Amino acid sequence: MSSAERQQLIIDTLKASTQPITGTEFAKKTNVSRQVIVQDVSILKAKNEPIIATSQGYLYLNQDSDNQLKQKVIVCKHTPEQTRKELNIIVDYGVSVRDVIVEHAVYGDLTASLHVSNRKEVDQFIKRIQNTNARYLLTLAEGLHLHTLEADSLEKIDAACRDLEKAGILVPE
Fold first, then answer.
1. Which residues 6+ apart lie within 8 Å of 43 measured at CB?
2. Taking the mean position of all CA atoms in its chain, how far away is CA 114?
3. Would you list the DSSP string of 105-128?
4. DSSP code of 78?
5. In whole angstroms, how far apart are CA 29 and each of 3, 14, 63, 100, 154?
6. Strand, helix or coil at 18?
7. Among 59, 145, 146, 172, which residue's CB has the most CB atoms within a 10 Å radius?
8. pTM of the model
């Protein structure tokens, strides 16, 4: 399979999927290394394909469905140990956490895609952090970070924010 055929397969598979697909899954399907897939995805991104890497795998952002969702950026502050509590509060209201953003003294804003929408995905994210001994981005900014939240209504986002505020996690505007 040529690189062009492999890249087209990646695009077609991601467009057809509603769930993230890992680089390892693509590597097995195409009989190449995961690193080759990472390179293919980088090339596709450079060609302006709306592919993002999340903690669960790659997603193709469908522009049409994103327009139906309401978004709000919130500011939070907590310890790494409170991450599960924060994310569970949000997803329990039917709200998705699109990303996390921290301000770095040298690099400026650092953004990482999360795309967690339910407790199972929260658990997978936390487990992946623990299994890889990775640090949460919030540790770069003394716990202060932003999230882009998405839901089919602002009421759901506002309800999640009220609970985050009660938990002492949401930074008041």
1. 3, 7
2. 2
3. TTTEEEEEEEEE-SHHHHHHHHHH
4. -
5. 13, 13, 27, 31, 40
6. coil
7. 145
8. 0.73
Q: How many CA atoms lie within 13 Å of 86's alpha carbon, on the beta-carbon side?
A: 26
Residue 15 DSSP code = H
- Reading the chain (173 residues) residue by residue, the pLDDT tens digits are 898 999 999 999 999 988 889 999 999 999 999 989 988 988 898 888 888 887 788 988 875 544 578 999 999 999 999 999 999 999 999 999 999 999 888 888 889 989 999 999 999 999 999 999 999 999 998 999 999 999 999 999 999 999 999 999 999 87
Residue type, 68: Q
Q: Please state, in angstroms and as integers, the Cα–Cα distance from residue 66 to each residue in 71, 98, 149, 152, following that order.
A: 9, 11, 12, 10
* CA separation for the pair 162, 164 (Å, rounded): 5
Q: How far out from the chain centre does Cα 123 lie?
A: 13
Question: Rounded to the nearest 5 degrees, what angle is found at the Cα of 135, between the Cα atoms of 134 and 141?
Answer: 160
Cβ(158)–Cβ(151) below 8 Å: no
Residue 170 DSSP symbol: B
SS3 92: coil
